[in-house]
Write a structure and sequence with these properties.
about 325 residues, alpha+beta, Beta-galactosidase, Chain A, domain 5, 2 domains, nine-stranded antiparallel beta sheet, 4 helices
Length: about 325
């Protein structure tokens, strides 16, 4: 019997260790209607949206590695997470979290900060900021691109819609000069759950957004040449598989200089998105307003109870006074 227990115990220990390792390999942060997951074992991220009591992935979730950040240094393309030349740290911030990657010549940061649209009272988007600092002694040419493996429009073959009502079922390249504000990956045009990618926004770095078959995008050497006669298939194996690729312009960095690009994604909204600082401040203000309203309702309820009573005790009066003092302090602190 002892011989059989040891393998079982070892197997149980292995299962527990693997579970712990899996838990440590992902960091989840929830704010409002958005859940951000950093998959630290692969240096990738995923985003999900709250839909009632469940979370709906906004990017392909079975393998988060299908969405990626690429950095081009001179003529060399580095897919972050697939290169062993970088050390990695993850830092939680007041507004979200940062990936920090360091090599002998570069510092790369991918910052995720929660944002909200003007028509929402809580967070419903993410601002993604990528910075690259040149640590080398010689200048380098740097560029970035962001691959987003969308999927929500694949079942209905709608794939993408724009703010102008266009339905995109073939490859398309869109830039800030196109007049299109955003592109959405949704099951239906009016679906409240979807991934909205901002194209023209005051806070977004101008780039070229291409939508096409995922494999064609991920295999592009760098900039993608869209063919508006092609659908989202790449025969024989990649069928009806959509994705979006944002490619940003390059910049020459001298020693110590920083390259910076900003992208914004979120739930469908026709309103503008606020910056992370304003989002945090106004969301806290909204939460405090809700707390004040709840406190006022509680006091009114107690006043009604006292008014209907034939006798009022000193303890009840003092309790009501304490509630009013607390309400006064909350208002003063606001």
């Amino acid at each position: 019997m002892r011989r059989t227990r040891r393998p079982v115990r070892a197997l149980l220990c292995l299962i527990v260790a693997c579970a712990a390792a899996g838990a440590a390999a992902a960091i989840e942060i929830e704010r409002g209607d958005i859940r951000l997951t950093l998959h630290t074992d692969s240096s990738r991220f995923s985003i999900a949206a709250r839909d009632g009591d469940r979370w709906v992935p906004l990017l392909f979730s079975r393998d988060p590695r299908t969405s990626a950040l690429d950095i081009r240094v001179d003529n060399r393309v580095i897919r972050i997470g697939d290169s062993g030349n970088f050390s990695q740290r993850v830092v939680r911030t007041d507004y979200g979290a940062d990936y920090l990657w360091t090599s002998t010549t570069l510092d790369v940061t991918q910052r995720f900060e929660f944002i909200r649209s003007d028509d929402s009272t809580h967070e419903n988007g993410i601002e993604i900021t990528v910075t690259v600092r040149n640590r080398a002694e010689q200048p380098v040419d740097v560029a970035a691109r962001l691959l987003l493996d969308t999927y929500l429009g694949e079942e209905t073959n709608t794939h993408f819609v724009t703010d102008r009502g266009d339905r995109i079922a073939t490859e398309r390249a869109i830039d800030a000069g196109s007049g299109i504000r955003f592109v959405r990956s949704v099951a239906t045009p009016d679906d409240p759950i979807g991934l909205q990618i901002m194209v023209a926004d005051a806070q977004v770095t101008a780039g070229t957004l291409s939508v096409a078959n995922w494999r064609r995008l991920t295999e592009a050497t760098w900039a993608f040449q869209a063919n508006d006669t092609r659908n989202f298939n790449r025969l024989p194996y990649s069928i009806n598989d959509s994705a979006a690729l944002i490619v940003y312009e390059p910049q020459t960095l001298r020693t110590g200089e920083v390259y910076r690009v900003v992208a914004r994604v979120g739930l469908p909204s026709n309103a503008r998105f606020l910056d992370p600082t304003t989002t945090a401040a106004t969301t806290r203000d909204t939460d405090l307003t809700g707390a004040l309203i709840d406190r006022v309702r509680l006091i009114l309820k107690r006043i009604d109870e006292i008014s209907e009573s034939d006798t009022v005790t000193a303890e009840e009066v003092e309790t009501l006074r304490a509630e009013l003092r607390l309400l006064s302090e909350l208002i003063r602190g606001r």
